[in-house]
Amino acid sequence: MSLLIKRFYSTGIKNRAIANGICDAIGNTPLIRIGSLSEQTKCNIYAKAEFMNVGGSVKDRAALYIIRKAEEEGKLKPGGTIVEGTAGNTGIGMAHIANALGYKCVIYMPNTQSAEKVNLLRSLGAQVKLVPAVPFEDPQNYNHQAKREAESLPNAIWGNQFDNVHNRLAHFETTGPEIWQQTNGKVDGWTCSTGTGGTFAGVSMYLKQKNPKITCAVADPPGSVIYNYFKNPSLPLKREGSSITEGIGQGRITDNLQGAVSLVDDSLFIPDSETIQMLYRMLYQEGLFIGASSALNVVAAVKLAEKLGPGHNIVTVLADSATRYQTNLFSKNWLTNKGLLQYLPNEYQQQLNQ
Ligand code: PMP
């Protein structure tokens, strides 16, 4: 094989062992080098392809750990019900696992999330309850409603993904070690955004334990308090603006994120204009059909690379796929209403449906 071809892909059978059911097939995702951005920054930009998980997102890992730990602790028994408050992806992971292990699944979701996630959850057999998107402090917030429902049902658990630290343990025990192995320990920077904070915290805790010199930078969209919290910890938490991203952005320091508070070296604010540009760029230049939180993570990886300078290895996460957001992220009307169409090159705009 010529050197030229070898640069772009390797051929032959990839060695993947047989998985014992879907639970065993969660994790061990590829780490993809993003060529165009690596060349641009003179760094290696690596992205963990979490959309390749069984349920199609990074949240399969947390879902599996939350369920397995509840079984181990005797809280979840055969035929039981898993109740969770979720932006969708954790619920999708839980619904797959519930089907495989013989549980029922009840999902509380804010009514602002994509139709694709809601439809998928229903196809998977989960009972979906859409509730108004009110802040965490409000007793009608989807998480509190999920908790109350779990308490009212026999043999049911509430996943409590925001404050149940089995969520970040999944990333401490799987995502972090995979990144370490896949890079042969050559990581200089790690960045991603936070919803529950499980991914960011679990991976940061693992990587810092392996090498305290690794820069851990949290990334944040508009409407979230995390960026300001790390820039000015003494100021009160304040929400400003809103974002097209789903599944990320937070109004408080969750118990999961708490584990990484002392490990955060930098915090990066990413506006939606940069996120949408990157989302289309990754699609048309790299063949990566990723959701908005993933595109935001990639922007953050580029910013971190620019801060650290040439020659560094930066890792981030591709949390899910754009198949979950096709009706909005690829609609001309929707992008126009959000004031974002103008950021896309003309040739991309022409491809879009109304
Ligand atoms: N991206 C997407 C699309 C998500 O659904 C989530 C989880 N809500 C995240 C990122 C954030 O992951 P975590 O909860 O581990 O912070």
UniProtKB/TrEMBL annotation:
Primary location: mitochondrion
SUPFAM superfamilies per record: Tryptophan synthase beta subunit-like PLP-dependent enzymes (SSF53686)
Domain of life: Eukaryota
Keywords linked to the UniProt accession: Amino-acid biosynthesis, Mitochondrion, Pyridoxal phosphate, Transferase, Transit peptide
Location in or out of the cell: Mitochondrion
PANTHER family: CYSTATHIONINE BETA-SYNTHASE (PTHR10314)
Task of the protein: Catalyzes the conversion of O-succinyl-L-serine into cysteine, the last step in the cysteine biosynthesis pathway. Can also use O-acetyl-L-serine.
Protein name: Cysteine synthase 1
Species, as recorded: Tieghemostelium lacteum
